Amino acid sequence: MSLIDIHIHVAKREHLTDVFLDYFVQEFGEEALKSIDDLTPIKFTKFLDAEGVDTAVLLSEYSPQVTGVVPNEFTVKFAAESPKLIPFGSIDINSSVRTGDQAEHAFRDLNCRGLKLLPSYGYYYPNDPRMYGAYEVAQKYDSVVMFHTGTSLFPKTRVRFADPLLLDDVAVDFPNLNIVMCHGGRPFWYQESEWMLRRHPNLFIDISGVPPFQLPKNFPKLERFQDRFIFGSDWPNVISIKSLADLV
Ligand SMILES: [Zn+2]
């Protein structure tokens, strides 16, 4: 069976805010930070081989207020070095360039294969009309938009933007867009995100950040919707992808 990890962050130190760097060093140590900073596509591909990961989705990020900015160009360049790596882009809702034009550039010129958005770090609602241009383009490319849902550890996060029910509008307005609710609305919106699977066939849950032993309790209809739950590790926020995947 092949293992696809849909939720991986690759970044350089210079992309990340002090808030994120402080958290990461406290949690995983200075050495771990150095090793992600020194990461090359070749080293990372070897790591993924050892972890049994066949395909890894690398997520760009546009969250200057909270975690940082991992540019689409960086992710695309990194991923281009290995067929195992799939780049996803991100969007700046406050840019003077319209979100549809940013998305078009990401898909057409950079060859991004999807988008990752973090509304609670960028302070907008997922159904904000300014974002609709990006959704339109992603739908046109028959692609996927991943949304961070649920809580976060980082200061300056505004959790009201991370409610999975806010994706109801997006799912209704873009019925052919694949939408992923990252973390399934952890920890107090599990029921809502699972209900959204029942309501919208174009919705999926990425289980990153949800402890595997809690999955059956948090998602009682896990078996019924097994095709709609996607594996993600949120690496480097976990040390071993393989030991996590073994538990799922
Ligand atoms: Zn993540």
Strand order of the largest sheet: 6-7-8-9-10
Q: Which structural class best describes the helix and strand composition?
A: alpha/beta
Order of helices and strands: EHHHEEEHEHEHHEHEHEHEH
Question: How would you characterize the largest beta sheet?
Answer: 5 strands, parallel
Task: Classify the fold: give the CATH topology.
Answer: TIM Barrel
Tally of alpha and pi helices: 11
Q: What shape does the CA trace take?
A: globular
Question: What does the model show?
Answer:
This protein is of the alpha/beta class and 248 residues long. The chain has one domain: TIM Barrel (Alpha-Beta Barrel), CATH 3.20.20. Helices cover 36% and strands 16% of the residues. It contains 11 helices and 10 strands. The chain has helices at 18-28, 30-37, 41-51, 72-79, 99-109, 119-122, 132-140, 167-173, 190-199, 215-218, 241-247; strands at residues 4-8, 55-59, 61-63, 68-70, 85-88, 115-117, 144-148, 178-182, 203-206, 229-230. Strands 6-7-8-9-10 form a 5-stranded parallel sheet, covered by helices on one side. Helix 10 links the parallel strand 9 and strand 10. Helix 1 crosses helix 2 and helix 5 (99-109) runs parallel beside helix 7. The protein is globular, with a radius of gyration of 17 Å. Zinc ion binds at residues 7, 9, 234.
